[in-house]
Every structure is written in C-alpha cells, then in structure tokens.
Specification:
Blueprint: E1 6-17, E2 22-26, E3 38-42, E4 60-68, H1 83-91, E5 93-103, H2 109-126
Parallel strand pairs: 3-5
Antiparallel strand pairs: 1-2, 1-4, 2-3, 4-5
C-alpha cells in the first residue's frame, strides 16, 4: 500500500510497546506462520483515549488510520535477530498511524474470514 492511503481493518493485538506507543497487529492469533501480514500501528495520537483492553495481547481491534512510510529502525517480534529474517519480516509489514481504534469484541474469526472471502470473490467476479 502507498503511504497516505486511508485504511480501516480488523486485527489482533500481538504486542504493545509503551515507549513508542506502537501496537503489533496481525490477522490471526496466534500467528504461527512466518509470512503473516503485520501492521505496526502508532497510537501516539490516541493515548488519551487508550485503555488496557486495547493493548491486551489477543484483543481484536478495529483500526482506522493512514499508511505511513515504515520507520527505519523497527523491531518486531517477527524480526528476532538475524538481518535477513528482519528484511523478510518487514516485507509483510505495514506502518499505520491510527486515527481511531476500538474493540471489536468477540470475533468468530473463521466466519469472518468466510464472509470476507465471499465478498472478495463477488467483487472480483463483478469487476
């Protein structure tokens, strides 16, 4: 995605760094595959409205914001040490500056993914 693109997505919190005010968001929990798409979400502008439920590991969140250029030095749990694996992990990483964030509550992930797949198929067939 290009920097400046407005996005809204659903994801699962995997980690929170209080010093940088960044959440690591993935599309499943636990993320066992190495190529799981990852969003690093800056919530710096939202700290006044953030609560512990929004940064708990395993919390499903709705996020709105803007794609930004990936910061030069980003450490994520997927990067664990080796420079080659770091580059590969960052290949599947998007940096988002959040403008809104709220709990998605309890998500039936399998059903959500089925509906999303159906919508994507319908959109592809219509286009």
């Amino acid at each position: 995605m290009n920097a400046g693109t407005k996005v809204r997505f659903l994801g699962c919190a995997h980690a929170y760094d209080g010093q940088t005010a960044r959440l690591i968001i993935r599309d499943r929990y636990p993320a066992t595959a190495k190529d799981v798409p990852t969003a690093i979400v800056s919530v710096q502008n939202l700290l006044e409205i953030m609560n512990h439920e929004l940064v708990e590991v395993g919390a499903w969140l709705n996020i709105m914001g803007y794609v930004r250029a990936l910061p030069e030095l980003v450490d994520t749990p997927a990067d664990a040490g080796v420079k080659r694996s770091r580059r590969k992990a960052l290949h599947h990483t998007t940096f988002v500056e959040a403008t809104m964030i709220w709990s998605a509550g309890v998500i039936m992930v399998d059903k959500y993914n089925d509906v999303l797949t159906d919508l994507q198929r319908a959109s592809y067939q219509a286009g």
